């Protein structure tokens, strides 16, 4: 994903900006975008107000950078699981890893990208293009893996990788939201198992 900011930065400046964005992401995902100010991010990162405005002309610009940061982190994790996907066993391994990742924390925290998207939806001043791009890239990882399964004969030739990817990602997002709301692992496990079972119906033989 491209950086929200267009101003050239030194290596040190980029590290500072990245540190600010990472801290802002933690605060905004945990507490909500609306409740986190630029001043608070500055205090959390020991960054002066003038420095903050050097890197971000407005809070909206920072929010856009946060969305890109969150999307990149998700794609790094998901890519490590999906880029080599060639069979249903890889999809099952991915589903297990997603559940295990949620289990690592003190509570089921849901999807940070989904959390941001829900809060920012419908606001024309917010970074909808970055949100759409992050979900599109995530969906593409799934679609490419499913396309490989069609090409190698694991899925039937008339399976639609795009539709299957959308359905699988939707099941994941719904499960993450429900698990966060209920703090119950089964709320995530059941829809992921259902998504895998749906894909199983397209297996050759």
Question: Your description of this structure?
Answer:
This protein is mainly alpha-helical and 205 residues long. It has a domain at 64-200: Tetracycline Repressor, domain 2, CATH 1.10.357. The chain has nine helices and no strands. α1 crosses α4 (59-82) and α8 runs antiparallel to α9 (186-200). It is elongated, with a radius of gyration of 19 Å. It starts with 10 loop residues before the first helix and ends in a 5-residue tail after the last helix. 33% of the residues are buried. Residues 1-6 have low confidence and may be disordered.
Which descriptors would you attach to this protein?
single chain; 205 residues; mainly alpha; Tetracycline Repressor, domain 2; elongated; disordered N terminus
Q: Kindly name the structural category.
A: mainly alpha
The share of residues in extended strands comes to under 5%
Level of helix content? over 70%
CATH class of the domain at 64-200: Mainly Alpha
Query: How is the CATH topology of the domain at 64-200 named?
Result: Tetracycline Repressor, domain 2
- Structural Rg: 19 Å
Give the count of helical stretches: 9
List the helices and strands in order: HHHHHHHHH
Sum up the overall morphology in one term: elongated
Distance between the termini: 39 Å
CATH architecture of the domain at 64-200: Orthogonal Bundle
Major beta sheet summary: none
Number of strands: 0
């Amino acid at each position: 994903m491209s950086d929200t900011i267009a101003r050239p930065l030194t290596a040190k400046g980029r590290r500072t900006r990245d540190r600010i964005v990472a801290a802002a992401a933690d605060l905004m995902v945990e507490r909500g975008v609306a409740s986190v100010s630029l001043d608070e991010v500055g205090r959390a990162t020991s960054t002066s107000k003038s420095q903050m405005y050097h890197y971000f002309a407005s809070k909206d610009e920072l929010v856009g950078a946060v969305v890109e940061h969150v999307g990149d982190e998700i794609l790094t994790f998901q890519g490590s699981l999906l880029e080599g996907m060639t069979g249903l066993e890889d999809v099952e391994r991915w589903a297990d890893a997603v559940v295990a990742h949620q289990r690592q924390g003190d509570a089921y925290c849901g999807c940070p990208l989904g959390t941001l998207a829900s809060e920012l939806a419908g606001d024309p001043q917010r970074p909808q293009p970055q949100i759409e791009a992050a979900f599109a890239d995530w969906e593409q990882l799934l679609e490419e893996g499913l396309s490989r399964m069609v090409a190698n004969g694991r899925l039937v030739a008339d399976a639609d990788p795009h539709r299957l990817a959308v359905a699988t990602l939707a099941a994941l997002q719904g499960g993450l939201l429900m698990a966060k709301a209920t703090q119950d692992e089964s709320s995530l496990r059941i829809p992921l198992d259902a998504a895998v079972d749906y894909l199983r119906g397209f297996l050759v033989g």
